[in-house]
C-alpha cells in the first residue's frame, strides 16, 4: 500500500520575497513547512547574496515550474567599480584593484554592448554542470573547466545612477542570463573591474511585485492563527496564486465536459481552430477549470502533456 505523503494537498504559487544571506532551498523548505504542503519546488534559484522574487510552487503547481524557470526576469543590481572578485560578487575575494578612469560617455557606450542578443560565457561560480558536477564545486577547488558561450537576450538595460564607485542598473533579460557575468564583463570593458554588491530580482514572467511576501510575514500569520486558535491555512492560503498563472501566456483550449473523461485518462481529443505543435493551457467545461497543458497536432487533436491530479482536499485550483 502506497504511503500517503506528509503534509496536505495544497496547490498554488507563493511569490516569496527572499532575504539576503539564505539559500533558495532554505527558503523553499520554510515555505513548505509554513503551508504544511506535501510537495514544493522553486522556479530557479537565487544566490544567497540576492534578494527578491522567488516563486514557490506547491503541490500540483510544481508540474509547471519549468515554464517559470524559462520565463524572462528583471533585476536591480548595484556594482562596485574598481574591484574584481573571484566570484564576481561581494561574497568572493578581491583579486584585482584598479582606478576608475572611464568617462560617462565610455560607460554608456559600454552598456550598449550588452543590450539585445549576445553570447555569454557562464561564471565558474554558477550552478551549471560539467561532467555531472556544478561548476562552483570545481571553482572552489581552484579548477577551471571549459564552458561554452550561451545565447542570451537583454531586452532592457537601464542606467539608474552612478554614485562614487557604485553603479546601479535595471536589467530585463532572458532565462539563463548571469547578472554577475554582465557586471564582471562590464568592469573589464571599462578597465577598472567590477563586482556585484546588491542584486534584487524584481520580476519573474508577469508576476506582480506587490504580491510578494517575506518569510517573516508568513511566520507572523502562522503565529496570529495560533493565537486566535485558527488553522494557519485560513490566513496563508489566500496568499496563493492559481497554479495556471505559471502558464498564463499559453492560449487556452476549453474542452467540453463530454470529452473531459477521455482527456483526463491521457487520451487525445478533437479540438478545432488552433496551430499544430503549439503548447496550450487546457480548461474544462463552462467553469473553465484548469487541468493542465497540452499540444495540438496537425489532425486537430489535443494531446495532454502535463495534467494535474485533483484531490478532494485540494484547496487551490
What features would you highlight for this structure?
alpha+beta, eight-stranded mixed sheet, globular
Provide an overview of this structure.
- It contains eight helices and 17 strands.
- It has 317 residues and is an alpha+beta fold.
- Strands 1, 2, 3, 4, 7, 10, 11 and 12 form an eight-stranded mixed sheet that branches. Strands 13-15-16-17-14 form a five-stranded mixed sheet. The protein has a two-stranded antiparallel ribbon with strand order 5-6.
- Helix 1 runs parallel beside helix 6.
- The longest helix has 13 residues.
- It is globular.
- The protein starts with 11 loop residues before the first strand and ends in a 10-residue tail after the last strand.
- The relative contact order is 0.17.
H/E topology pattern: EHEEHEEEHEEEHEEHEHHEHEEEE
Query: What percentage of residues falls in helices of 4 or more residues?
Result: 10-25%
Give the averaged pLDDT, no decimals: 89
Low-confidence stretches: 313-317
The N- and C-terminal alpha carbons lie at a distance of 27 Å
The number of helical elements comes to 8
Kindly state the number of beta strands. Answer: 17
Largest sheet: 8 strands, mixed
What would a concise description of this structure say?
The chain has helices spanning 24-35, 65-69, 104-112, 135-140, 179-190, 215-227, 233-236, 257-264; strands at residues 12-18, 40-42, 51-58, 73-81, 83-85, 94-97, 116-120, 129-130, 133-134, 150-163, 166-173, 194-204, 252-255, 269-270, 279-284, 289-296, 301-307. With 317 residues, the chain is α+β, with helices and mostly antiparallel strands.
